[in-house]
Write a structure and sequence with these properties.
Elements (H helix, E strand, L loop, with lengths): L2 E7 L3 H12 L4 E4 L11 E5 L2 E4 L10 H6 L9 E2 L5 E4 L5 E4 L3 H9 L3 H25 L10 H6 L2 H20 L4 H9 L2 H8 L3 H12 L11 H7 L14 E2 L3 H14 L3 E3 L4 E7 L2 E7 L4 E9 L3 H6 L10 H8 L7 E8 L16 H4 L1 E4 L3 H12 L8 E5 L14 E8 L12 H18 L5 H4 E7 L1 H8 L35 E3 L13 H13 L1
Parallel strand pairs: 1-2, 1-12, 2-9, 6-14, 12-18
Antiparallel strand pairs: 3-4, 5-8, 6-7, 10-11, 11-12, 13-16, 13-17, 14-15, 15-16
Length: 542
């Protein structure tokens, strides 16, 4: 039986980051990927000859600069294409709102709706920046344990306990650094997005544009606690060239993970594709290796799973694996509720928006994220359908056109439109016969029709499409419940509570088994932070 220092289960971006750091430290590392390509949910597909899409994940901003630097991703082909303007919201009354990185431009655009909001917007952005700058260092290390459960505390050695106390001190210093802004910053981290936006602004067009960031990937309305943090989460990062500016990866998101794979292999990592792990092997009370679907067994001193906690502990481990009953129960309580759908389209021409016409050449309305969600009430009503298991009658749409800046993705004159949809509940109402397999295409038609109301040529321009329902996201990417964050991100599933209280340091109750994916702190998004943090903890234990 082959034997490695470490086996990484899953070649998603976090698994590749974890593997690369372990190999750079001199470890013999094997990455096992069940699909025929690396990348997990950050991959590029060809949906028709000559038309390439970022299948699931489609923008980058959160990627840690340390990961980009240490893995020399630019040398391996990674290139971010910035977008300016970064946001376009068409409105039913013929008006529109554009937002970008230029303060004077934003002031002019917002002032069309509210002079007061135009003055407030720079202060709002500055506040978010201050909170993000305080929080971001906490994402690059295991979180302080806010619930030091006796059993978990006893298992830690004195060095680990000292590190834990140090993290607690840094958390306290972070909160103290917010000064007089701490109360409103705490509300942002723990509360609902809607009252925060209502307090800052009066224009529905601006509030609705900003509010979509608070619900992307969630099964919650903008009035629900926890959406404030999702709002903050989406303005972190600088991989797009400036804080909170999301960019396209040239060649699609798969180009990023291909660069990560090349970096990892340069460091000595072995990557095996079409190698599905069927079981994590346990001997003497610790993880000792894996058994592949074909029957092959491979040994390792340490294993890291890039899969969700539910997949890792309920599917890859035998039912009699030595896990504490309380831990199993906690894993069973993880909330994976989701209402996201992805529709990738190849189109023959650019959308020609009624409020800002033009399709012959790329205009400012085509470069950034296009928001089909004109009011806060529109967003609330879209969720109202979903909470009863109904796909939104008027869905919330985010459209991106990567070919506006990246001509490698489609034939000349043609374009790619990527549509991220809210709300498409994973659990459909019983009266919806056939579930998502029977209703996915009809809902995709509804989404295309919703966009066509703003750009009349859009529906007729569609040449090819790829529809990924929540069920498809689960089947293809093993995202439990179709949740793009590997678990919802309300406060009780963040920081020291992720994946479950007492086990936020990437270790698990089974010695030798770690979590290196978004199931662990700090959660979803293409950041590389879970993989980087997990590698550091594995090296401490080796």
């Amino acid at each position: 039986m082959n034997h490695y220092d470490s086996i990484i289960i899953g070649a998603g971006h976090n698994g590749l980051v974890c593997a690369a750091y372990l190999a750079r430290a001199g470890k013999r590392v094997l990455v096992l990927e069940r699909q025929n390509v690396v990348g997990g949910a950050a991959v590029t597909d060809e949906i028709a000859p000559g038309y390439k899409v970022s299948t699931a994940s489609y923008l980058v901003s959160l990627l840690l600069p340390e990961v980009e630097r240490d893995l020399e991703l630019k040398r391996h082909g990674y290139r971010v294409l910035t977008r300016n303007p970064s946001s376009f919201t068409p409105l039913p009354d013929g008006r529109h709102l554009l937002l970008g990185s230029d303060e004077a431009f934003n002031h002019e655009q917002i002032a069309k709706f509210s002079a007061r909001d135009a003055e407030a917007y720079p202060r709002y952005e500055a506040w978010l920046t201050r909170v993000a700058e305080c929080i971001e260092p906490l994402l690059a290390e295991p979180p302080a344990d806010l619930l030091p459960l006796p059993a978990q505390w006893r298992r830690r050695g004195w060095l680990q306990r000292l590190r834990e106390l140090g993290r607690g001190r840094r958390l306290y210093k972070t909160l103290r650094a917010m000064g007089a802004e701490l109360p409103q910053s705490a509300e942002l981290i723990t509360g609902a997005a809607r009252p925060i936006l209502d307090r800052w602004f009066e224009s529905d067009a601006l509030k609705a544009t900003l509010a979509t960031d608070a619900v992307i990937g969630t099964h919650a309305p903008i009035s629900a606690p926890g959406t404030g943090y999702v709002l903050l989460h989406h303005v972190m990062g600088m991989a797009g060239g400036a804080r909170g500016v999301w960019g396209y990866v040239e060649g699609g998101m798969g180009a990023l993970t291909q660069a990560m794979a090349r970096s990892a292999m340069d460091a000595g990592v072995e990557i095996r594709l079409n190698a599905e792990v069927a079981e994590v092997l346990v001997e003497g009370g610790k993880a000792t290796g894996v058994r592949l679907a074909g029957g092959e067994t491979i040994g390792a001193r340490m294993l890291a799973s890039n899969a969700t906690a539910r997949v890792t502990f309920e599917q890859l481990l035998a039912a009699d694996a030595p896990l504490p009953a309380a831990f199993r129960e906690a894993v069973g309580r993880i909330d994976y509720s989701s209402a996201s759908m992805k529709i990738n389209l190849a189109v023959s021409e650019l959308p020609d928006f009624s409020c800002l016409p033009g399709k012959a050449t790329v205009g400012p309305q085509h470069r950034g994220t296009i928001h089909i969600s004109p009011t806060l009430e529109y967003l609330e009503r879209a969720y109202d359908d979903a909470k009863y298991g109904q796909p939104s009658r008027e869905p919330v749409l985010e459209l991106t056109i990567p070919t506006s800046v990246d001509r490698t993705l489609a034939p000349e004159g043609h374009h790619i439109v990527q549509m991220f949809v809210q709300y498409a509940p994973y659990q459909l109402a019983p009266e919806i016969e056939g579930g998502w397999d029977a209703n996915g295409d009809a809902f995709a038609n509804r989404c295309i029709a919703a966009a066509t109301r703003y750009a009349p040529n859009f529906g007729a321009s569609v040449l090819h499409r790829q529809v990924l329902t929540p069920l498809d996201l689960e089947r293809r990417f093993r995202l439990t419940g179709g949740n793009i964050f590997q678990g919802a991100m309300p406060l009780h599933q963040l920081f020291s509570f992720r994946p479950v209280p007492g086990w936020s340091d990437y270790r698990t109750p089974l010695p030798g088994l770690y979590l290196c994916g978004a199931a662990a702190h700090p959660g979803g998004g293409v950041s590389g932070a879970p993989g980087w943090n997990c590698a550091k903890e594995m090296l401490r234990d080796s």
